[in-house]
Amino acid sequence: MVATALRRPRGRVRIVRPRRWRRILLAMGIGLLLLGGGWLWLRSSSLVAIRQVQVTGLSGEYARQIRTVLTRTARRMTTLDLSAAALKQAVAGYPDIAGVTAQLHFPHGVTIAVDETIPVAAVHSGGALVAVDAHGVLLPGRPVRGLPLLTLAPDAAGRPITAPGTLATLAVLSAAPFQMLAEITAARSDTAHGVTLQLHNGPALYFGSTRDLAAKWAAADAVLASPNSAGASYIDVTAPERPAAGVGAGG
Prior knowledge:
single chain; alpha/beta; Ubiquitin-like (UB roll); 2 domains; six-stranded mixed β-sheet; 6 helices; 25% strand; disordered N terminus
């Protein structure tokens, strides 16, 4: 009986020594550091610097200042490293700002949307005059001087305003050029003329519905600036393409 010799497999088993593992791990670590450093460099690089800034939702007396502050702040950032907290902090001194959100447009643009709570009228609430914004939210503690008085059927008593006619009046007031608010003494909504604003030592403005408010305010401004409106007791801009001024209660 012939003994069969045990043969070793021809393939060689390769053993990775601990020292070789250390070299591999070290190379991987260096690679990760390089990648991390590259990312840190890119996120603050001029390749993604913010250059185009659009600010929406602003109105009121300080709109230009707020737009300038937000634009200047955003242009110090990049689209890979934009801080919403920094934008909010930049306008923290303006009490009318309720919030700020940003939408990036890679690689160089951003749109900043501003949520405002600007007082547009004053109402009687709880025995005191309280400011109210365009959405019918009461703003206790905010100044009411120079704001038109809004006539409410029941006392608001601290609750948000929900009456359709009153909300329509607030919408008309919020669309007014901010310089005009101080010229308006009272505001109401009725079945005869819709939203009606009474100017200080001037005529009443009949707006009707809340449609085409920009055109209606432009028409009202044009009629007020015309010498032909002197002595008028009302200006009707219900149809802004055909504004009318007259004496009496109006049509």
